[in-house]
Design brief:
The structure holds two protein chains of two kinds. By secondary structure, chain A is α+β, with helices and mostly antiparallel strands. Helices cover about 30% and strands about 20% of the residues of chain A. In chain A, helix 5 runs antiparallel to helix 8. In chain A, about 55% of the residues are buried. Chain B is built from 15 helices and 28 strands. A seven-stranded mixed β-sheet of chain B has the order 3-5-1-14-11-12-13.
Chain lengths: ~325, ~700
């Protein structure tokens, strides 16, 4: 591990000032991902600015039915919060599907959004990786790609985003609130993470020094009937092969509105807009779900090691929608 | 007949005597021994799989504050013996595998050592490497023998004629992936070189075996090396032999005489420096009559070894004793690759071999229209098919019947894919288990009656978490005819009387026999009321009677499996193992070992797979986030029971050893249950959801 300086930010503006303009500085939240990366030499910050004690630790109801989540709220606290459990069960389930109890106790909301891919080559300094060292090549292509992308990848990077929480937030139209030197800006979560394109080293649209202060969930009454389904080899403590976040608004056996996002399939939480369009107004039948899944997955390009993700994602979308509709009595 | 002990303390479910120290964190593991003024080592590792180093630039590392020395082949102390190439470290610039230890930084803190290691620049001249095992390689060869000393091939009768004439035949290929032992405690050595004596606080399964191995490597007399290992956080075979990290720590200690050098492998480094199980490709052919009676068994194994050192896993040896058949052939062929050397892991041989063999038997049962238990009973041999010797106690049939009764086997539908509950397909499977009763020579114990009126029992045995501290105390108490409180056991140190390695499930058999011999000699010499200071020692006696019998433990593994009809996810809500392993010394620690083995079997069945990327030559999923082992949530209702029995021929305790049989057959039972749940036959481990997606 490279030696580094440590400071504790006194307030949000000071935190932003301490990192902006210092290319080697980084924010430290729960540290569950960054500290690993420092040990492995993937991240080599020369200064850590600890933001874990800033006043971002609250979950508040917003006027109109939404919820504002402080960036420092721990994953475990968020998962069990009554506002989240009652209004957005999909998010509570996604949080509990992630990591282990010990990690959830440390990991923050903002940090969860910023966690980096678990591609084994990204995490191995002895192999090429365009995300870690731009221009060095992608070792995953032609290698171990079981956990890699089938949607939105590029010839430079086929990594997936590992978060469960972010997949649920993508389905819920969450907004990421960010503080920078020039003040606050609000970024829709679906625009927050990038596809790899030619710059896979950039996971998000954040500028260096910008600090996540909160995530806002808009009101979505029908999200009270929502679910997160994570498919993985072992029953806990594993990243998703495929995951599905969904909410259904049903009336008279038909789908008024649906929200759908996929995890484990792309460089970002994958909001399934094609599937949502196919579902809107369709009868709540397995046939509709199948058509929606096929519409979403039509552009998928599996790699040598992950062709199974196509039928797995398709089956899981169908199963989650089917079970949600059943719960709703449709 | 072997003179059996009268069991009094033996058979009691004593709590672990070291339990309190362990849960309160006061039992010192290798890294934790409080030593004055320690230094810390971080290794340098080869970044190519084959070739040589042409330049090593250590200037930047050496300039870093806190760095004491950077050791490379240029300045490393010389070693004395090169017969074991795994241990011939830093004596040349040659590279045999990616990750090979090529140097070390010794520094004031572990952080400085690691940072400095990253500053060392190594230039290489790479040669093309070859790291891909395949069945169609043209350079597969027959080893002289397989681990530990079995014939590579056997051939009895005329299998080809029998297969051609068989009413029913099975011909299938099964594969198991490369797997890593992954004990919780990483491989760790703290080395001190002082006054011409090398002391290693080591995480090992055998203090004396490490000493015996390392003494010639360092050119030291055995009494100039001492290995101390009172507590060990798991080994599963990977700590059964000395590995390169022991030598690196010893070399480093010689560069800084008098200072302890602490070295713990990272989890990542354990994926190339501490052994692993070879991948296997196993073709099995079975011939049988319509009644299921076997007429031919063929088990042909292909596996890998390292080009620089051979290890040949005995994958087919269990097939030589499992079932009756007049015609039988087994063989092992190896590919020499530019990879780390495989080694012992969790019942080497039996574990992968019985996966293939017992799935093949399930396939034969289906082909014959027989219940899989009935098929196994029908082929149970009256004597050892290999040696012709009588069994010291073969109770496989009893295990199968008892398991069937307890598990509710009669509720199993005869056809696959017959049961569906809440979107999950449910099935049951069974497989046999077996493991040999090994008795390794050379263990010795001493007993001394102390002023405190307790018996000090000394033997350099190992406790790798299995319960040795407790079980040997129970054996000593019964051997001396005294309460367990009157026994003070000392183990885990090569300064104690010589003990064989904790391996091959043989520890308790060997060490217990030595203690019993010492206790009998002690009573013979000093009587029932010894004076303080009375002492005697004895070796484990040779047991000529043991040679007259085929001595193996047996068991039956049952599993219930659920497969999600939408996603292919596979879960195992229920497992039962019924074992016949001779007398059980401590039911509490024994149960823990059995269900621990079964858990490893489940892990093998569903999760474990080291992915070696042949382009680079190393395992790329080299951490516990990407190399999956079973998590708590994967283990449901798991139970192990055993037949109440004594092996009258094995040793004075009547035990046969239980360390490894728990894993054997477990993966096959799960694979067979997965077939029963879905109708899909998986022959390639691990059984992951993608293989079961409808």
């Amino acid at each position: 591990m490279m030696p580094f300086a440590y400071e504790r930010a006194a307030d949000p503006a000071a935190a932003v000032a301490a990192v902006t303009g210092r290319p080697g500085a980084a924010f430290l939240g729960g540290g569950t991902n960054l500290v690993d990366h420092m040990k492995l030499g993937i991240a080599t910050p020369d200064r850590l600015v600890d933001v874990s004690r800033l006043p971002f630790d609250r979950v508040e109801a917003l006027p109109g039915g939404g919820v504002r989540i402080g960036a420092g709220v721990r994953n475990s606290d968020l998962a069990t919060h009554p506002l989240i459990r009652s209004r957005y069960p999909v998010l509570a389930q996604a949080l509990l599907a992630g990591a282990s109890a010990q990690l959830r106790n440390l990991a923050t909301t903002g940090g969860n959004l910023l966690q980096r891919t678990r591609c084994v080559y990204f995490q191995d300094l002895t192999t090429p990786c365009n995300k870690r060292r731009p221009g060095s090549g992608c070792a995953a292509i032609g290698g171990f790609t079981r956990y890699h992308a089938i949607l939105g990848a590029s010839e430079h990077c086929v990594a997936t985003h590992p978060s469960d929480m972010a997949v649920a937030m993508a389905a819920l139209d969450a907004v990421v609130v960010v503080l920078g030197e020039k003040g606050e800006r609000r970024i829709p979560l679906t625009d927050f993470h990038r596809l790899p394109g030619e710059m896979p080293d950039r996971d998000t649209v954040l500028e260096h020094g910008e600090l996540i202060t909160a995530v806002e969930l808009p009101a979505l009454p029908f999200a009270a009937r929502s679910a997160y389904r994570k498919v993985r080899e072992r029953a806990s403590y594993a990243f998703a092969l495929v995951s599905v976040a969904a909410a259904l608004d049903l009336a008279d056996g038909a789908i008024r509105e649906a929200r759908l996002a996929l995890g484990g399939v792309a460089h970002k939480p994958w909001r399934a807009v094609r599937a949502e369009a196919a579902l809107r107004g369709a009868p709540a039948t397995v046939e509709s779900y199948r058509r929606a899944a096929d519409a979403e997955l039509a552009p998928a390009k599996p790699l040598a090691g992950n062709a199974f993700k196509l039928p797995m994602a398709r089956n899981t979308v169908i199963a989650v929608l089917r079970d949600l509709a059943k719960e709703g009595g449709a | 007949m072997t003179r059996l002990l009268e069991p009094r303390a033996i058979g009691m479910p004593l709590e672990r005597l070291d339990g309190h120290a362990k849960v309160t964190g006061t039992a010192p593991y290798a890294f934790e021994h409080a030593l004055r003024d320690p230094l810390y080592l971080y290794p340098l590792e080869a970044a190519i799989a084959r070739g040589r180093m042409t330049a090593i630039d250590t200037a930047e590392a050496e300039a870093l504050a806190g760095v004491v020395a950077v050791m490379t082949p240029r300045n490393a102390p010389r070693l004395a013996a090169d017969d074991d190439q795994e241990l011939w470290l830093l004596q040349s610039e040659g590279i045999h595998f990616r990750g090979q230890l090529v140097g070390a930084v010794i520094a004031q803190t572990p952080e400085i050592a690691r940072h400095a290691a990253a500053l060392v620049r190594i230039a290489y001249e790479a040669e093309p490497h070859d790291a891909a095992l395949a069945a169609d390689r043209d350079d597969l060869y027959k080893p002289e023998q397989v681990n530990p000393d079995y014939a590579a091939d056997t051939d009895e009768g005329d299998v080809e004629a029998a297969l051609a004439a068989a009413d029913v035949a099975i011909d299938a290929t099964y594969t198991t992936p490369m797997e890593h032992n992954n004990p919780m405690e990483p491989h760790t050595t703290v080395a001190i070189w002082e006054g011409g004596v090398l002391t290693l606080y080591d995480s090992t399964q055998g203090a004396h075996s490490v000493r015996t191995t390392l003494a010639p490597v360092f050119g030291l007399a055995p009494d100039k090396i001492r290995i101390i290992a009172p507590y060990v956080g798991g080994g599963f075979g990977s700590k059964g032999t000395a590995h390169a990290h022991d030598v690196l720590a010893g070399l480093a200690a010689q560069m800084v005489p008098g200072r302890p050098v602490k070295f713990a492998l990272t989890r990542q480094q354990m994926f190339w420096l501490a052994g692993y199980r070879t991948p296997t490709i196993q073709r099995i052919r079975l011939g049988a009559g319509r009644d299921g009676r076997l007429t031919a068994i063929v088990h042909e194994v292909i596996e890998q070894t390292a080009r620089f050192k051979e290890f040949a896993e005995q994958t087919a040896t269990s097939t030589r004793i499992m079932y009756a058949s007049p015609n039988r052939r087994t063989s092992h062929r190896l590919a020499k690759l530019d990879v780390p050397v495989p080694s012992w892991m969790r019942a080497p041989g039996e574990t992968p071999g019985m996966f293939a063999g017992e799935v093949a038997m399930d396939e034969l049962a289906v082909a014959c229209g027989l219940d899989p238990i009935a098929l196994r009973i029908r082929n149970d041999p009256a004597a050892d098919p290999q040696s012709g010797k009588p069994w010291s106690g073969r109770k496989l049939v009893e295990c199968l019947r008892e398991g069937a009764r307890r598990f509710g086997w009669d509720r199993r539908a005869p056809n696959p894919a017959a049961r569906r509950e809440d979107g999950w397909l449910v099935g049951m499977g069974v497989a046999s288990s077996t493991y040999p009763a090994y008795a390794l020579p050379g263990s010795r114990a001493t007993i001394r009656y102390g002023e405190d009126q307790r018996y000090v029992v000394r033997i350099g045995a190992a406790d790798i978490g299995t319960g040795t501290w407790t079980a040997l105390t129970q054996i000593a108490a019964d051997a001396l005819g005294c309460p367990i409180e009157a026994v003070r056991l000392e183990i885990g140190d090569s300064a104690l009387p010589h003990a064989s390695v904790e391996g091959g499930s043989s520890g308790i058999n060997c060490w217990g026999s030595a203690i019993v011999a010492a206790a009998r000699a002690f009573r013979g010499q000093h009587g029932a009321a010894p004076v303080p200071g009375a002492e005697i020692g004895a070796e484990m006696p040779e047991d000529p009677e043991a040679q007259r019998f085929a001595m193996h433990s047996f068991g039956a593994q049952f599993a219930e499996v659920r497969v999600n009809a939408d996603t292919g996810e596979i879960r195992v809500p229920r497992m039962l193992g019924v074992f016949s392993a001779g007398r059980i010394i401590n039911p509490r620690t024994a149960r823990s070992q059995f269900i621990g083995g079964m858990t490893m079997g489940l892990s093998m069945a569903l999760h474990e797979e080291s992915v070696l990327d042949p382009r680079f030559g190393h395992v790329v999923n080299h951490d516990l986030a990407s190399y999956h082992i079973a998590a708590h949530a994967d283990i449901g209702d798991i139970d192990a029971v055993w037949l109440d029995e004594v092996d009258p021929h094995s040793n004075p305790m009547g035990s046969r050893g239980i360390g490894e049989i728990g894993i054997v057959g477990a993966a096959a039972a799960i694979a067979n249950a997965a077939w029963h749940a879905t109708g899909i036959r998986i022959r390639d481990l691990p059984i992951t959801p993608d293989k079961l997606l409808a």
